[in-house]
Design a protein that fits this description.
The chain is α/β, with parallel strands linked by helices. It has 13 helices and 12 strands. It starts with a helix and ends in a 17-residue tail after the last helix.
Length: 315
């Protein structure tokens, strides 16, 4: 039904006023103009809309249906206006993020906590994935925003902000290497069992590239797709792992693990990235969240432990 909105307003006001003349007075137009608009609606519907009664004009059966339509349309307009107003004030909305598992702890403790406290009506969906899965989610518009570690070039990715987060060696304070003073060489790491992400994970790719460039092979004793498994393996004293320090922030703070620098330029150049799809129009809530994440990442300094902070290794 293609009837101009203003024409429907004339019809609704005529019913409410009880006559064409009264409706014209309310609308501040000539009665003939109201009659002409009503006639156009009747022609479009091929049915009369009004009939006369002692109390003025009343709707016919078709007029009743059209009046109900007008009221529902008006209610929908009001609801939409209210929802749009709330959305623009960031009181409602939905955002989806796909992030590397290592980001989750600090992400929930800091930027997402402050964002949700300020914008309580905005629902957040937070999913974890590997680098490839994060890129796919962002490119396929399954996620508004991605957080990933270790850059991977893709023509449809926009990098909003990047923060240098070196790959470090994480181990128990009782591990034989924990007392090393000046960082670790890849050669010394290759002599000890490592727990690593499965092949294909972004961090694992970085590890393999570093060892390959040094002409070495890591001694991989365990592979997993779980950050929790890697951290527990590192705490066991039997293995160590290679991760950005933020992935073990709580364990480092509690003294359960120590982090040592690794003498590898590729490891030192590693970054964490906030990404979106090129050309995607962000909702207002999304832009606000990006600003929150950027501020957080700018202050997101890599956590480090030095050999002097670790107790001497056990004999």
């Amino acid at each position: 039904m293609d009837i101009p909105h203003q024409r429907l307003v004339y019809f609704q006001v005529t019913i409410e006023a009880g006559s064409v003349r009264q409706a014209a007075a309310r609308l501040n137009i000539a009665p003939s103009a109201v009659s002409r608009q009503l006639a156009l609606i009747e022609a479009a519907l091929d049915a009369p809309l009004l009939e006369r009664s002692r109390n003025g004009v009343v709707p016919t059966a078709v007029g009743e249906m059209l009046l109900e339509y007008c009221r529902k349309r008006s209610a929908l307009d009001d609801t939409f206006s209210e929802e749009l107003d709330a959305y623009q004030r960031l009181e409602t909305g939905h955002l989806s993020l796909t992030v590397g598992e290592g980001f989750v702890g600090d992400l929930l403790d800091t930027p997402l906590r402050t964002f949700t406290e300020r914008y309580r009506g905005v629902r957040l969906d937070v999913n974890t994935g590997s680098t490839s899965e994060i890129i796919e989610a962002v490119v396929e518009d399954e996620a508004h925003i991605g957080l990933m570690y270790h850059e991977r070039v893709h023509p449809q990715l926009r990098f909003w902000h990047s923060s240098r987060q070196p790959l470090v060696a994480l181990m128990s304070p009782m591990h034989p290497l924990a007392g090393t003073k000046d960082g670790l060489s890849l050669s010394s790491l290759s002599d000890h069992p490592l727990a690593l992400w499965r092949t294909g994970h972004g961090v694992r790719q970085l590890v393999d590239e570093g060892f390959r460039e040094a002409g070495l092979r890591p001694q991989v004793s365990m592979q997993t797709n779980s950050l929790s498994v890697l951290l527990h393996a590192a705490r066991s004293e039997l293995t160590l792992t290679l991760l950005p320090a933020f992935a073990a922030a709580r364990e480092l703070e509690d003294g359960l693990l120590v982090a040592l620098d690794v003498d590898c330029e590729r490891f030192r150049r590693a970054h964490a990235h906030i990404i979106t799809r090129v050309g995607r129009r962000m909702p207002r809530a999304g832009l606000q969240l990006l600003r929150h994440l950027e501020r957080w990442m700018r202050a997101f300094n890599s956590l480090k432990s030095t050999g002097s902070e670790a107790p001497p290794p056990r004999k």
